[in-house]
Specification:
204 residues; alpha/beta; 7-stranded mixed beta sheet; globular
């Protein structure tokens, strides 16, 4: 994909117009972007888009949205050639989840290897905060879930604690190593034999 093609793909992407927090985006907004889809799943920080592409191929009736702050990552994912049931957007995930999504409109969130933001002064940039967790609960459908995987044990314990303070129910979960729907980081770390920490947090 050339730079011009990528710029055109952004122009052809979804339009939010002048967003009104009092009128958040419902399920129908997302499924309307890909007729035939009936569910919506969001990956936060999709990187090169590998998980999105594999998951979308396995579940054609689900609309997958990748939310990424870095334009370079959006470009890399888009360069892979996105099917009709995938979009990758350059937006702030916390704002989208906390302010833009309608209640009970999302089937699943995927958070794989979030930036640990090691420095103390950067702690406010970490994704899983009480306000974010509360927004996840609000926007998930009943029986919807947040899937979390990281290779950083300390951050995993912190995120797990925040999520445990909501109504989400932690379930033991581990993706099969043979599952093609894995991020590039997950594939890499599995190959290296690195220990991964993860769980599924289900809305009752």
């Amino acid at each position: 994909m050339t730079r011009k093609d990528f710029a055109r793909s952004l122009e052809d992407g979804p339009r939010f117009g002048l967003f009104d927090p009092a009128d958040p985006l419902p399920l129908a907004y997302w499924t309307g972007l890909a007729p035939g889809t009936t569910a919506v799943e969001i990956e936060i920080g999709p990187g090169d888009g590998r998980f999105l592409l594999e998951a979308a191929a396995a579940e054609p009736s689900t609309f997958f949205v990748g939310i990424e702050t870095r334009l370079g990552s959006v470009a890399r994912a888009s360069a892979r050639g996105l099917p009709t049931n995938v979009r990758v957007l350059q937006l702030d995930a916390r704002f989208v989840v906390e302010q833009m999504l309608a209640d009970e409109s999302i089937d699943a969130f995927h958070v794989y290897f979030p930036d640990p933001w090691w420095k103390k002064r950067h702690a406010k940039r970490r994704l899983i905060t009480p306000s974010f967790a509360s927004a996840v609960v609000r926007t998930l459908k009943s029986r919807g879930a947040l899937y979390l995987v990281t290779d950083v044990e300390t951050r995993y314990r912190e995120m797990r604690q925040v999520l445990s303070e909501t109504i989400l129910v932690e379930e033991a979960w581990e993706r099969s190593p043979s599952d093609p729907a894995q991020s590039s980081y997950e594939r890499k770390y599995r190959t290296q034999g690195r220990r991964l920490y993860g769980a599924r947090f289900r809305k009752p």
